[in-house]
Amino acid sequence: MTNPAVIIAGGGPTGLMLGAELRLAGVETVIIEKRKQRERVQPGALGLHARTLEVFEQRGIADRFLAAGKPMQVLGFASVRLDLSAFPTRHPYGLSLIQEHSERILLDWAEELGVPIRRGVEITGFKEDAAGIDVALSDGGSLRAQYLVGCDGGRSFVRKAAGIGFPGSDPTLSHLLAEAELTGEPEWGLRSDAIGTHALSRTETGKVGIMVTERGIGSGEPTLALLSAALIAHYGSDYGVHNPTYITRFTDMTRQAETYRQGRVLLAGDAAHIHYPAGGFGMNLGIQDAVNLGWKLAAVVKGAAPEVLLDTYHAERHPVAAGLLRYTLATVALSRSDDRTKALGAIVRELVGMAESRLVTAGRMSGLDIRYDFGEGHPLLGRRMPDLEVVIADGPVRVSRLMHDARPVLLNFGSEAVGAGQWDEVRTVRATYDGLWDLPVIGSVMAPMAVLVRPDGHVGWVGQGTNEGLTEALANWFGPR
Ligand SMILES: Cc1cc2nc3c(=O)[nH]c(=O)nc-3n(C[C@H](O)[C@H](O)[C@H](O)COP(=O)(O)OP(=O)(O)OC[C@H]3O[C@@H](n4cnc5c(N)ncnc54)[C@H](O)[C@@H]3O)c2cc1C
Questions:
Q1: Is any atom of ligand 1 closer than 6 Å to the C-beta of 123?
Q2: Is position 135 within any domain?
Q3: Is 244 in the pocket of ligand 1 (CB under 6 A)?
Q4: Collapsing DSSP states into helix, strand and coil, what is residue 379?
């Protein structure tokens, strides 16, 4: 294999999305995945949030996920249901779809785009110098690239080997999670006791999904014997548990990488942040990290933009994960059953239940109201571009349709001659739009005369009748010319 420009450690959802984004931008990359088989066996996400569906819409693949999953209102906090139905988005809901399926759809798409994936090989070391990074592989081979991105999960080798700190809090809760067969008829559904919540349910394969809360924080390999003992402790029987597909453990350990970039090493997805699964953020964050990073890495390796563009990846994405980690920490705290926590929970429920805070919380948890801090300006600046149906020379088209190839778009709604000049990669489109500009949480905003939409769908510049600031914005996002 010729040396790629970017090596991706890990072919989970984050690595697959990043690989696809880099290929769309025409960058040579390779995913190194230690798992031998194509399919994911370990459990994971139960669904996709609204912003992730919008991101997929921007790449023309949302229909694949919608055909496989079930739209539903999935969000909630402190037992308050957060309904997205009234939000101005094409996807005012979450999509119930297990990670095994989401990952398969992403993998198929990445393969269609020609992303090379080397399976059954691990990244075992790396060393960077002024011109590149040498990456050692478990099969004895090595690769050289310009950048290495650790998408290698919560126990990330890349993060540890780079010496990037992972501050946060130790676990207070620990669960065993398994899929197995039972010989006896169990007590189906959720059950709570002084230790915590336990659940038994049928899975798609006809086996039984088992979740039990451990007494204390479990350590060591989760085994069938441990699972059996935990079932007996909580249910009085292990129902003849046998033939597990997997047995794993998850906790509420919450940590976030202190930096998402160190020299030629970057981190994305679980490698950069781990937390309790309540709220269902992990995979969604990882996919959105990848979409934020992909076009920036592409611009830098092509020599169009300076390296400093990569620092905006940390500046934009670290606060988003930090904000959501707070919800997961709070959810665990509020799940305690002592009188004081119950009182606190009642107050939080009352506050979050108020119309305005319900709106704000739904905007944050769904990812629809993410605003990157690009400074003062029009409310669109830093927020996601709404997927409006605009009219261009060829007729009506959705903005998301203009973004399938992950190129930046300069939409000109005015009569002024707004153009991207020497930035050939930016597609300038003259459009008209007569409807309301309605943003989730914010509501209606003044119609802009022009917007520069970055490949990740966030607005990098807003024009209100003049070209003021456009050249600076183009240079800032896509490199000086
Ligand atoms: C019980 C549970 C429920 C969850 N529910 C949700 C949910 O509802 N919604 C949600 O969004 N998220 C949920 N998550 C979280 C979600 O599963 C993760 O956030 C997601 O898998 C992260 O994706 P990733 O690609 O960053 O990492 P991973 O999926 O962990 O992928 C990392 C990949 O890297 C590979 N790898 C590791 N080390 C190396 C190496 N040295 N070299 C090469 N390859 C390597 C691994 O084999 C793996 O395939 C849940 C997780 C759990 C455990």
A1: yes
A2: yes
A3: no
A4: coil
